[in-house]
């Protein structure tokens, strides 16, 4: 017996086979106009875009910069109250100088954490204006039927479908003002105050740069429902405004209600890490690692903290734990090789870097690995091998610090040859 198309579409949607669901919806809608099919199609498209644009991860650690914005923050804030790396206290400057120096000597030393943070930052930066519309490039078409996209508020089906309609317009079409109009109509027609609409309006205000209105909407949403997504949205807004102290206060308020919540602890740890409070950040990362042993970012940050605090043996344990709980990658083996170097486990150094080169996929990471191999060669006293490693690194990917290191090493080799010649002539 053939299964009706309606049930097939519903089954595909429930089993998260969205591509097949959308294709079948298009075929069915060519023959008839069905509101239920239109609704499922719109939901499937919205979910695809939200997953592609990672709309659930909203914190952006690049401060919002707009020369015409009336809500701009001070350009010279007090030390410890901003994410600006150029403004630090004396203790923070010395600490970060040590880390940056070590990173220059060993660019792959914190590669795993750097990769996690760069990926996180790239996804969060997509949270501006029409991030979802951009994510749909090459995806499903945006030719939704007008009968559902522009329902008047008098329609009885408008209120139940309003949330889906809002998310479709906001994420798929990228039309923020139209989404706000839908939210206002839904609030008027529903005759009830729903925290979800205040939370959704805050997204629109945030995208338009109206931060005071976004803050008011989020505060009203918190009065109606203490939901964790509202706290995360408030944290995202204050982080984007370069106000880490306010963001930390929101984290503490959320943790009073959601005790040991992993998302809130992660955001609190990231903020402390960005402002230079590494000790406080590691405490939160340790709690997260206990609750979620498979959290790669927390474990990698703990390992990096121990590595830069002259505890490579403990850092090696965490990297081995990552190797056992996550898929193998070049960053893990690269960091393991450096830990073995500083633990004087010479028999494991080259196998780790060999595996790092095997799993490396980008020219930049391969260049960093060869640069670290040059550092290993210098540790053994083989300057000629170090020079070859630096040349290979430059051949793979051009980097300024590699060229500077190669220039300094060649000058040192030249001085060494001159001294050897003078010694022979003297003898």
UniProtKB/TrEMBL annotation:
BP terms from Gene Ontology: non-motile cilium assembly
SMART domains with a match to the protein in the record: TPR
CC per GO annotation: BBSome; ciliary basal body; non-motile cilium
InterPro entries (alphabetical): BBS8, TPR-like_helical_dom_sf, TPR_rpt
Protein name: Tetratricopeptide repeat protein 8
Source organism of this protein record: Papilio xuthus (Asian swallowtail butterfly)
Organism lineage: Eukaryota, Metazoa, Ecdysozoa, Arthropoda, Hexapoda
């Amino acid at each position: 017996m053939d299964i009706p198309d309606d049930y097939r579409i519903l089954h595909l949607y429930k089993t998260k086979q969205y591509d097949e669901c959308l294709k079948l919806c298009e075929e069915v809608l060519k023959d008839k106009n069905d509101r239920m099919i239109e609704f499922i199609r719109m939901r499937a498209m919205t979910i695809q875009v939200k997953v592609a644009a990672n709309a659930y991860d909203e914190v952006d650690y690049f401060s919002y910069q707009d020369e015409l914005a009336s809500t701009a923050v001070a350009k010279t804030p007090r030390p410890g109250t901003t994410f600006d790396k150029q403004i630090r206290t004396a203790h923070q400057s010395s600490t970060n100088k040590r880390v940056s120096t070590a990173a220059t000597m060993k660019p792959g030393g914190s590669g795993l954490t750097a990769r996690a943070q760069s990926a996180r930052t790239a996804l969060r930066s997509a949270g501006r204006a029409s991030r979802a519309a951009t994510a749909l490039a090459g995806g499903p078409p945006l030719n939704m039927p007008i009968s559902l996209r522009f329902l008047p508020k008098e329609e009885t089906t408008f209120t139940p479908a309003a949330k889906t309609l809002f998310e479709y317009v906001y994420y798929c079409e990228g039309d923020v003002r139209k989404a706000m109009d839908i939210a206002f109509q839904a609030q008027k027609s529903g005759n009830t105050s729903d925290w979800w609409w205040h939370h959704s309006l805050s997204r629109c205000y945030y995208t338009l740069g109206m931060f005071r209105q976004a803050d008011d909407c989020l505060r009203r949403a918190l009065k109606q429902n203490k939901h964790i997504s509202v706290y995360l949205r408030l944290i995202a807004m204050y982080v984007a405004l370069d106000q880490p102290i306010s963001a930390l206060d929101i984290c503490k308020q959320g943790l009073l209600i959601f005790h040991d919540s992993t998302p809130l602890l992660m955001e609190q740890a990231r903020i402390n890490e960005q402002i230079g409070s590494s000790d406080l950040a590691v405490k939160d990362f340790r709690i997260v690692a206990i609750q979620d042993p498979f959290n790669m970012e927390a474990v990698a940050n703990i390992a990096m903290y121990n590595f830069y605090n002259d505890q490579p043996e403990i850092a090696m344990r965490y990297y081995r734990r990552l190797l056992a709980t996550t898929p193998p990658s070049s960053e893990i083996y690269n960091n393991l090789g450096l830990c073995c170097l500083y633990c004087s486990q010479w028999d494991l150094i080259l196998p780790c870097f060999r595996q790092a080169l095997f799993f490396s996929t980008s020219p930049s990471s391969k260049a960093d690995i060869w640069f670290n191999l040059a550092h290993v060669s210098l540790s053994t006293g083989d300057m000629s091998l170090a020079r070859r490693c630096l040349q290979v690194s430059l051949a793979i990917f051009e980097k300024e610090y590699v060229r500077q290191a190669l220039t300094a090493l060649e000058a040192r080799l030249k001085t060494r040859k001159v001294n050897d010649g003078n010694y022979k002539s003297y003898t």
